[in-house]
Design a protein that fits this description.
Layout (H helix, E strand, L loop, with lengths): L4 E4 L5 H12 L19 H13 L3 H11 L2 E6 L7 E8 L7 E4 L15 H4 L3 E7 L11 H5 L5 H10 L5 H13 L5 H12 L15 E5 L9 H4 L5 E6 L7 H4 L1 H18 L9
Parallel strand pairs: 4-5, 6-7
Antiparallel strand pairs: 1-2, 2-3, 3-5
Helix pairs in contact: 1-2, 2-6, 6-7
């Protein structure tokens, strides 16, 4: 194994866990108003209070911590970039079980984490190999609802609950994702930096340019934050696959993993059969 690549497992100290519980014990919330429990204005304050209470007194972090260590082969890798200190990247790498699997690089966004791949890896590994780099940290908040804006000034931990609540399903799922951000060593900058770079870096504009050399596939889910029309997607590169789904949202790999995996199989399978996709090791 390369000296820059090291095995990794999630192990949060008891001291950090205790510190989190102390912060949750003193969590504060916005004042209750006639709109506080109206879902049209965002997640109701009463739901946030209930979830924070469960986070403090009922949520079993150790059980959730054990799952990725058991199911996801994790590594850290030093990426050397000229002009910068080496970047320590956390990733998951799982090899496909069939001969000549198609290598996939899956990158998560915010407020996602490496844990998003937990449901699609079992579906993909029979046909592909994958390596998922991940940057996790305490999230900054986006103005997606009125109540979401109200929480940050009151209390960081209750606001983190709000930022994730609207996307996921069970209490344990929500709190596992939030806890990953809270316990991360990277800090808030890891999730914020990409937004600054996208706004200020000249090279960031290249993603909006037509790239003839890269085949493009687009899966659109109705509850995602943004949905680009086909006419826009066709200006970015040769569009070889497009699918509009009737369910799923921003975390499609977690919400509807079977739909996303089927799209990947159809797109890449078609490219292999047509001879448009060739790579070392594939037969």
């Amino acid at each position: 194994m390369d000296s820059d690549v090291k095995l990794f497992s999630v192990r949060i100290s008891g001291a950090k866990n205790a510190q989190l519980h102390q912060k949750l014990e003193h969590a504060t919330y916005p004042d209750q108003t006639s709109l506080s429990d109206n879902w049209a204005y965002g997640v109701p304050v009463s739901h946030i209070k209930r979830l924070v209470s469960y986070w403090k007194d009922g949520f079993d972090w150790r059980q959730q911590e054990a799952a990725p260590n058991r199911d996801l082969p994790q590594y850290t890798t030093l990426i050397h970039v000229e002009g910068f200190d080496p970047l320590k990247i956390h990733r998951v790498h799982k090899k496909g079980s069939r001969p000549g699997p198609i290598p996939l690089l899956l990158c998560h966004g915010w407020p996602g984490s490496f844990n998003e791949v937990a449901k699609i890896i079992p579906l993909l590994t029979a046909q592909t190999a994958k390596s998922i780099p991940a940057l996790t940290s305490l999230p900054h908040l986006s103005p997606t609802s009125v109540s979401l804006l109200g929480h940050p000034s009151q209390d960081l931990h209750s606001s983190i609950v709000v930022s994730t609540y609207v996307q996921l399903l069970t209490d344990d799922e929500i709190l596992t994702w939030i806890s990953i951000y809270h316990f991360s060593d990277a800090g808030p900058e890891a999730s914020c930096r990409i937004y600054y770079e996208n706004a200020h870096s000249p090279s960031a504009k290249k993603v909006e340019e037509y790239n003839l050399g890269v085949k493009l596939g687009v899966s659109t889910f109705p509850k995602d934050l943004l949905m680009s029309p086909s006419s826009h997607c066709q200006t970015l590169g040769p569009l070889v696959f497009e699918k509009w789904h009737d369910r799923g949202g921003h975390f499609a790999a977690w919400e509807v993993p079977e739909l996303l995996v089927e799209d990947l199989r159809v797109m890449f399978g078609g490219l292999v059969k047509s001879g448009e996709l060739k790579f070392a090791g594939h037969k």
